[in-house]
Design brief:
The complex is a heterodimer of chains A (about 190) and B (about 210). With about 190 residues, chain A is an all-alpha fold. Chain A contains eight helices and no strands. The N and C termini of chain A lie far apart (about 40 Å). Chain B has about 210 residues and is mostly helical. Chain B has eight helices and no strands. In chain B, helix 5 runs antiparallel to helix 8. Chain B is globular, with a radius of gyration of 17 Å. The N terminus of chain B is likely disordered. Classes of the chains: A mainly alpha (about 190), B mainly alpha (about 210). Chains A and B meet through helix 4 and helix 7 of A and helix 3 and helix 8 of B.
Chain lengths: ~190, ~210
């Protein structure tokens, strides 16, 4: 029963990946554009899922702290993007986030909470900056902001749902393997083969 | 114990009524009304929902009020009502500068952040935040194109819309606060975080475009 709930949670989060729609003008168009921005970027997707998986691995309070804090730190990065504050190697930083976070999950790393928060927060700035630079061009900036914040949150939920499988021995192996796959994919983005 | 359950059912009924009024009301707003001026009232009721900055602020305000246990702050809801009334009354006479809407976003940022962080605030600070936020949104709701009776009707509708929207959200937060599981409370804090994040981004954009 619990496994069914976890599966539902992961599927619910991954439904965000199937939200293909034409991004038009106005409120709905701005929201759709913002929602699709992280979802259509596979480097964003795997990194955000890894955040959720790592949070589930670390357990409480990281499990709920990361989804609460991450959007606001990401928004800070987005604000830097809106203001035109340059951030070096944004795309490389995003790819590196997948490598590092995936590796943390694969290695079952359990650093102190403050260190995990610093690592995740640093990468959140890169992701936010990438979304924020698109904000001025959005049909409706507020709807766009809500769109990508919500999409990011749903990806976290998907990662948490999958990550909670660590409660079983086989599940723990599956989650660590998933982290390894994410790290490899991140490496592919970083060197340019993906 | 029985009194607690009765109070909970009363609040739940109030939430259902408010939510039903809210969901059902827009149907009337798109139809011609036989009563002169009632179009202004319907538009006023919808106003908080169609201005994104106000919507975010009021949602965050409802979450902020409902997140705290009822017995800790019995004045929060009356202060929200009083602030709403004061705000729309001021809007009836005072022209609202454009930066008021950006101010509503700033309130949404603050309230969303408080919902996410859930710090221990003094009762006075909490009450002040509730009253000021409600007043601000009411003050920014003046319909520039209307004067006289239509303006008054629109503002009356806006006050009703603000109260309905905030009440429904605070009832939801209040219900969540009484759940035994921790997950609903976490979900509320995540909602607050989302509201704060979106508000921060749009505020930054507004400031950047204003200074550019």
């Amino acid at each position: 029963m619990y496994a069914i709930r976890l599966l539902s949670l992961a599927v619910f989060g991954l439904i965000s990946a199937s939200a293909h729609a034409h991004a038009g003008a106005g409120l709905s168009g701005g929201f759709v554009s913002g929602f699709l921005h992280p979802v259509l970027g596979w480097d964003h997707v795997i990194a955000m899922v890894a955040v959720g998986m790592w949070g589930a691995f670390l357990g409480a309070p990281a499990l709920w702290l990361l989804p609460v804090v991450f959007p606001m730190v990401m928004a800070f990065g987005g604000a830097l993007g809106v203001l035109g504050v340059p951030l070096p190697a944004v795309e490389a930083g995003i790819a590196l986030s997948a490598v590092v976070l995936g590796a943390m999950v694969a290695a079952a790393a359990r650093p102190p909470l403050w260190l995990a928060a610093v690592v995740v927060g640093a990468f959140a700035v890169f992701h936010g900056h990438a979304h924020g630079t698109e904000l001025p061009e959005a049909a409706n900036p507020l709807a766009y902001s809500l769109g990508f914040v919500i999409a990011t949150g749903l990806l976290h939920i998907a990662g948490i749902g999958f990550g909670l499988l660590v409660r079983w021995p086989q599940g723990r192996l599956a989650v660590r393997a998933g982290g390894g796959a994410i790290a490899l994919a991140g490496l592919g983005f970083l060197v340019g083969v993906l | 114990m029985r009194g607690h359950w009765r109070a909970g059912r009363q609040r739940a009924c109030a939430a259902v009524v408010a939510g039903g009024l809210w969901l059902g009301w827009p149907v009337g707003a798109w139809a011609h009304s036989p009563m002169p001026g009632m179009g202004s009232f319907y538009n006023g009721v919808l106003h908080p929902a169609v201005v994104p900055a106000h919507l975010l602020c009021l949602l965050a305000l409802g979450l902020f009020i409902g997140q705290q246990p009822r017995q800790q702050d019995g004045l929060a809801v009356p202060l929200m009502l009083a602030g709403t009334a004061l705000g729309v009354l001021l809007a009836a006479w005072l022209p609202g500068p454009a930066w008021l809407e950006q101010g509503a976003l700033a309130w949404a940022l603050l309230l969303g952040g408080l919902v996410a962080a859930r710090p221990a605030l003094s009762r006075l600070v909490r009450q002040g935040v509730v009253a000021l936020a409600a007043t601000w949104v009411g003050l920014d709701s003046g319909p520039d194109a209307l004067q006289g009776a239509p303006r008054a009707l629109a503002l009356a509708g806006t006050a009703l819309g603000m109260v309905m929207l905030t009440t429904w959200t605070l009832m939801l937060a209040d219900w969540v606060a009484t759940r035994a599981s921790a997950w609903p409370s976490v979900a509320l804090r995540v909602l607050g975080s989302w509201i704060a994040a979106a508000s921060l981004l749009v505020l930054t954009l507004a400031l950047a475009q204003g200074s550019g």
